[in-house]
Amino acid sequence: MVTLVLPTGSLHEPTLRLFDAAGLTVHRQASRALRAHVDFPGIERVVFGKPREIPGLVADGVVDLGLTGTDWIEESGAKVEVVHEFQYSKTTSAGWRVVLAVPVDHPARTAADLPAGVRVASEYPAIARRYFEEELCQEARIVHSHGSTEAKVPDLADAVLEIVETGDTLRHNDLRELVVVRRCAVQLVVATQADPVVRATAEKVALLLKGARAATEHALLTVVAPADCWDRVRQELPRCWWLLGGDPETAVAQATYELRGVAEAITRLTQAGAVQVVETPMRKLVTA
């Protein structure tokens, strides 16, 4: 049986919402309980851990699969394999960035403008060191931060290498972004030596989570058109659609559309002759 570890911290609530939407609702005795279960064959138990710890827990075989961030996988150096990547964060439906930032009045306009020996505070010392040594070929003093990194400037550091979602925290602390060092997302991972049972379970979980994410970005349109307009309406349907039937005078079809294109699609369908278009939200959109 498989053990799944889910993140605490900023990724906690959006991850629970994603699992709920996927039909993998996490059940626990209390909101702060660190052990839980899901009603899904093959998953014996669910535990919670800090995202920075999860790559190591999976790599060492303490748990079988887990969700964590790209940043902590790189920072830890843990030997894990990514089953699937999901674009979400605490406050957005996208991932996040690891950026190099300086005070707003700093003379540097690019990372290369920073002087040799610049002090850089970061919760990601390995990523910071690798960036300066391997990508910039530049000397820097890395100050390992354990939180409130922005407050390290100017007393303990000249710059920060920190995660950003919206950029509000940088602005509120009079810092500005110099460069994006890494783009990050949530990743479902297993150990490189994971057995076939664990890999199969991970693939099943990934399929359901992908379906839940896809459903938030799509809608199902049901289109009713008179038979004498059907040929024109059909040309406005996407490549993948289904004819549900109808009668000699009417055709009924369904198709999925990206939400950002639904309004335009409805307009085109009605202009082509559709007499009714019904938009239905979806819980899951699974593509095998």
Model regions low in confidence, pLDDT < 50 over at least 5 residues: none
What's the alpha carbon Rg, rounded to whole Å? 24 Å
How widely separated are the two ends?
24 Å
* Residue share in β-strands: 35-45%
Give a short account of the largest sheet: 7 strands, mixed
Q: Looking across the biggest beta sheet, what order are the strands in?
A: 2-3-4-1-5-12-6
Helix content: 25-40%
User: How many beta-strand segments?
Assistant: 16
Number of helical segments?
A: 8
Give the overall form: globular
Overall pLDDT confidence: 94
The sequence of SSEs as H and E is EHEEEHEHEEEHEEHEEHEHEEHE
User: Helix/strand-derived class?
Assistant: alpha+beta
Feature tags:
alpha+beta, 288 residues, 35% strand, five-stranded mixed beta sheet, single chain, seven-stranded mixed beta sheet, 26% helix
Structural account:
The chain has 288 residues and is α+β, with helices and mostly antiparallel strands. It has helices at 12-21, 54-59, 70-76, 125-135, 168-172, 196-216, 230-234, 262-272, and strands spanning 2-7, 26-27, 35-38, 43-49, 65-69, 80-86, 96-103, 118-122, 140-144, 159-164, 175-184, 186-191, 218-226, 241-247, 250-258, 276-281. Strand 14 (241-247) and strand 15 form a beta hairpin. The longest helix is centred in the C-terminal third of the chain and has 21 residues, at 196-216. The radius of gyration is 24 Å and the shape is globular. It starts with a strand and ends in a 7-residue tail after the last strand. The mean pLDDT is 94.
